[in-house]
Amino acid sequence: MFSTDIYKQRREVLKSKLNKGIGLFMGNHEAPCNYTGNTYHFRQDSNFLYYFGLDEPDLAAVIDFETGREILFADDVSLDDVVWTGPLPGMQEKAERIGVEETKPRGSLTAYVSGEKKKGRPVHFLPPYRGDNMIELMDMLGIHPSQQKETASEAFIRAVVSMRMIKQPEEIAQIDRACDLGYAMHYTAMNMAKPGMVEQELAGIMEGIAVSGGYMPSFPIILTQNGEVMHGHSHHQVLTKGRLLLMDAGAELPSHYCSDFTRTIPVSGEFTGIQKDLYNLVLDANNHCINMCAPGVSYKDVHLASAHIITDGLKQLGLMKGDTAEAVASGAHAAFWPTGLGHNMGLDVHDMEDLGEQFVGYDHTVSRSPQFGLKSLRMARVLEPGNVMTVEPGFYVIPTLLEMWKEEGHNAAFINFEKCEPLYDFGGIRIEDDVLITNEGYRLLGSKRLPVTVEEIKEVMK
Asked: Which DSSP letter does residue 212 get?
């Protein structure tokens, strides 16, 4: 937790942005794994953490935007709780830690919120993503779970996003620490990777480092020789010489601030031939885009700059052809890079994705494109000091996609489909770093950058 004053200040700023009704903050409950008493590792709701800081299940809170009243809904521990968990702080002590003066039992939340609604007062809530909270919201407000995302308060969402988008010094310090732990995860895996190992061994080592030095991985680890599969969570393959191993992983601290890095390494220990050419192309795009990051720069423009670099490079390697600008405008490069350049990061590895990307990565100045590839760009708005971004260009050979486009003649003016066929077992390359936007431009997060050049990776893998 941060200091009491930080949570009080955050709530005061939020009150200044909304002036009618009440704001409802639903903390998370325990989530059963296979029976009620055997739960998944608890993860508190990030918006509840941001404003109320208490990292335990079965909590909720309300802010009255008209009177300034704040209420924490929580229960004192019972004798049964003490038997299983030991002595725990009482409800009033929890409230004092975060500067909230009024408390009520957790079981009284539904009656309280329903009563405010009956008075005709607006009840602002954020889009729920867990089933138990959806059911409770339905009981409180009479809104079916299928309609809750659409009926969540846009004013509330926009107010929260406006605050969480700009990271404060105490948050940046936590993200730096998470990046240092992510560095240890990746560096160790690079150093230990050898032909004959099973992918699961490395994934387990990385997860163990995240748990031993923090809270848990910031998302399920992606570690695969099938790098063309964007979220490849299967780790059953034996590491084989000649293949590339893509490792996308990050750490989450006890504060729940996150990191997210990707490195792609050659199982043999050294990039050769077209592997090296394509890796250096992705690295050029990565470095160029990082250097573009600065206040006032559109992140959509940064993404498109990367698309131009990748298209130019693939033309030189014979995989693409034609005019670069026309190829990018038509989305031809998405045959090899169908994802966006990056996303916001903070308390969530995809920060505030639960609130809706249209509010986080987009605003009144830019809307999401329907074009294949470009529509996957999670962040497109103009950068501001305090934004924390990932920069992760890539190159992927997805045979199904290439064959479909070839059969349809889609973007045939820009893609040399026949020259792609020898690469159908290539896999993929992604290089991802975490960046803070500063008043002067940017800085990489963490104490030092993970090995990234072909020479650095070779040295670590020796």
From this structure: H
Question: How many domains, in total, are found in the chain?
Answer: 2
- pLDDT of amino acid 323: 98
Helices and strands (DSSP H and E) totals, the chain:
17, 17
- The token pair at 164 is 């969480």
Residue 260 · residue 447 · CB < 8 Å: no
Instruction: Kindly provide the residue ranges of all beta strands, DSSP E only, lying in 108-157, ordered along the sequence.
Output: 123-125
303 neighbors 309 (Cβ within 8 angstroms): no
Q: Which domain holds residue 217?
A: 169-461
pTM of the model: 0.96
For residue 340, the domain's CATH number is: 3.90.230.10
Are 146 and 201 members of one domain? no
Residue 164 in this model has a pLDDT that exceeds 90: yes
The residue out of 121, 146, 164 marking a domain boundary is 164
Which amino acid makes up residue 343?
Answer: H
How far is residue 345 from each of residues 184, 259, 341, 349, 353, measured CA to CA in Å?
Answer: 19, 7, 13, 5, 10
157: tokens are: 């969402």
